[in-house]
Amino acid sequence: MNFSETANTGYFFGLVPLLVFLPLTGMLINMIFGGKMKEWQIGTVASVASGLAFVVAVLLVYSLSATHGHAETIFFAEWIYIGDLQLDWTFRVDTLSAVMMLVVSGVGTLIHIYAIGYMHEDVRFKDDIKRFRRFFVFLNLFIAMMMILVTGDSYLMLFVGWEGVGLCSFLLIGFWYDFDTLGQKSTKNAEAGKKAFIANRVGDFGFLLAIFTTFWHFGSLQFDKVFEAASAHPDPVVISAITLFMLIGVTGKSAQVPLYVWLPDAMAGPTPVSALIHAATMVTAGVYLVVRSAPLYNLVHGASYIVAMIGAVTALFAATIAVGQYDIKKVLAYSTISQLGFMVAAVGMGAYVAGVFHLATHAFFKALLFLSAGSIILGMERGHHHLAHGHEDHDDADVHHDEEEEVFDPGDMRNMGNLRKQMPVTFWLYMAGTLALAGIFPFAGFWSKDEILLDAKLHAEHFPGVYLLLSIAAFLTAFYMGRQIWMVFFGKERTKVAEHAEESPPVMTIPLMILAALALLGGAMNLPFEGFHNLGHWLGYTLGESHGLPLDLGVAGISTVLALAAIYFSWLLYGKNPLKEGQSDPLKKPLGFLFKGMENKWFVDEGYGAVIIQPFEKLAKFLSIDLDWNFWHDWFHNSVIFAGFTALAKFLSDPVDMGIINAIADKLADMTKRSSENLGRLQNGFVRSYALSVLLGVVAILGYLLFK
After folding, report:
1. For residue 620, which of 50, 56, 401, 602 sits 20 to 30 Å off, Cα-Cα?
2. In the predicted model, what is the mean pLDDT of residues 14-20?
3. Whole-number Å distance between alpha carbons of 551 and 112
4. What is the 3-state secondary structure (H, E, C) of 615-664?
């Protein structure tokens, strides 16, 4: 379908390119004119651009609903025409992409608005106000790239968006590239961005192999053509290779074992980045890829089982690490990895509706938690600034970075305590997100997580072990979130800074309230009752027939009991006897080396360092110093090339040039000289001599003629 055709349908499919170009327009306005605009104007332009994209997404959902979910492809421009490869820039609007459009633009817009207040203070605490505009330029670029990813009608167009969001992730993780997470001058944030970039390149290599294999075998990269060819002539070996190559990309982008290590370090970026990119949108791209490729995964059970097990193992592994973390954002980072594991396990089992359902609800409550964590961190920053400077004014002229100030970590939960008193609004909002994440009825997480657990139980025969791993992970989720609540909001303040923490302004708390409402009510999109399985029915148009699962009181009851028990245990350890200043974690002594492993992230980073990074650095050092410099430069260049050239030049200069060439020239010169001397004797100036010479010549000629 092209634009002229969509104009005559009476629907809004022709507006789909605006999903990309509206954020790009906001980005360009801020790039070109932002230097002369005020902060609120820059933030408004970026937020309106994202908000208008959300309006377009709503209109597209309406159009799909009116056409009973019929997928539309909208041609935009010719792109690649090389031999058999003919790809256009074509937008795909179906019920799956529509869900992603709503999540990206809706949650993204709320985070844009929140970021106006957050970055207003963050750039001042770091004393670099000019970066405010750059942040919103990057944020709008990310929305545009994410829209390219979810609306592409081919694997190659999806890959363009895939790489685009990877670039934005790199730019935003290292946004404060000359600081560390404590605001001190350092390159640690830049290193975190580099780590994310490299880990994702490993995953992207796998995705590229999947794309190459797909085109080599099916002769196309357009979704419908690939799926039709795969169904018509299924080759289990080739399809298994394609899907497993895709899984490598999924482990990179969606932070699964073993490529998850970049996401915790990604917390180096400003908190709105953590909420938008590393909780609600970009990291779900891998889940979206598997769901989009469902017709391929349905053909190979072995690959699907590997996907499901990778997700389940990741869910449990990351949850154990979250139990031992002290940084408020690191806890949420490992929680995100764990919840992504739930989604990957679900789509691996073929429970695509459950996976997308949890993707959407997780975007609500995890964005809420991350943004609330940002509110807490800024509240602690305000308290620290108040104590350090003796005033509460945060105007431009008054807030400066004092390098001699004592280094204080505003994100360390051990520095908090009783913040519900200083930050009551943030407390209740954080509680809403926590209850949703823990899976407490009636919050959204209860419905979406239980649907995944039910699918795991129903498919236990084909996917053994998944239900058990996810159930344990769910228990740990409720435990570490309870631990976080007791450490942050209850007990006595463990530092003076916590005593002076301040609540965030409405520009930050109002978006949180909207997200809290979604975290509470979001489960209504797919309730397990007859006639209320709306998301399943909606996705059924794209994924095929989808039957809603009824409520299983056994699964729901077990998960609820596990969650409540975990919260109770967290209260016994952290709530009943709150931590005091300087007190070690109460789990450290009873768990011993187990807690040490959780606290140190099971030494995975050290393992990567020992197995990959250090050998790579040694190899690089050997190649650069020993091979390149010492051998190639010092020995080969100096001893072989330079010395050889010098010897050859000396040989050509002395024996050849001086001994032969110059000697020949000298001999010729001597011969010429002697000849000239001999001939010169004939030139004596006497006429008689010349006459005699003529006579002799005539006689000689006559004699020659006579004898001849």
Report:
1. 602
2. 97
3. 37
4. HHHHHHHHHHHHHHHHHHHHHHHHHHHHHHHHHHHHHHHHHHHHHHHHHH
Q: Please count the CA atoms within 13 angstroms of the CA of 315 that sit on its side-chain side.
A: 29
State the Cα–Cα distance between residues 363 and 274, nearest whole angstrom.
12
Contact 595, 588 (CB under 8 A): yes
The H or E element that residue 400 is part of is none
pLDDT in tens, 367-417: 999 999 999 999 999 998 888 776 544 444 344 444 444 578 899 999 999
Q: List, for residues 590-638, the tens digit of each pLDDT value.
A: 999 999 999 999 999 999 999 998 999 899 999 988 888 888 888 887 7
Write out the two tokens for 519: 């975290």
With 60 as the cut, is the pLDDT of residue 344 above it? yes
**Tokens (6 digits) for 48:** 């309106």
92-144-198 Cα angle (round to 5): 105
Please name the residue that has the structure tokens 């996401």.
263
Long-range contacts of 156-160, Cβ-Cβ distance < 8 Å, separation of 24 or more: 156/80, 156/87, 156/211, 156/221, 157/79, 157/87, 157/89, 157/90, 158/289, 158/292, 159/207, 159/208, 159/211
Q: What is the token pair recorded at 255? A: 């932070």
The answer for residues whose C-beta is within 8 angstroms of residue 392's C-beta and 6 or more apart is 382, 385, 386, 502
Looking at residue 561, its amino acid is: V
Asked if 627 and 633 count as a contact pair (C-beta separation under 8 A), the reply is no
d(CA 419, CA 493): 8
Phi, psi of 399 (to 5 degrees): -100, 115
What pLDDT was estimated at residue 66?
Answer: 94
Q: What is the Cα–Cα distance from 452 to 464, expressed in whole angstroms?
A: 14
Tokens of 102: 């709503």
Q: Which residue type occupies 148?
A: I
Q: What is the average pLDDT value for the chain, to the nearest integer? A: 91
**Is residue 132 a contact partner of residue 115, using CB atoms and an 8 Å limit?**
no
| Residues 118, 272 contacting (CB under 8 angstroms) | yes
φ, ψ for residue 82, nearest 5 deg = -135, 110
CA–CA distance, 339 with 279 (Å, rounded to integer): 9
Give the start-to-end residue ranges of the domains of the chain: 300-393+410-599, 606-702
Residue 347 corresponds to which tokens in the numbers above? 């789509």
d(CA 519, CA 429): 10
Backbone angles phi, psi at 93, to 5 degrees: -115, 105
Least confident window among 43-52, 397-406, 439-448, 695-704: 397-406
| CA dist list (Å): 7 to 13, 179, 192, 404 | 8, 51, 47, 64
Q: How far apart are CA 62 and CA 11, in angstroms?
A: 8
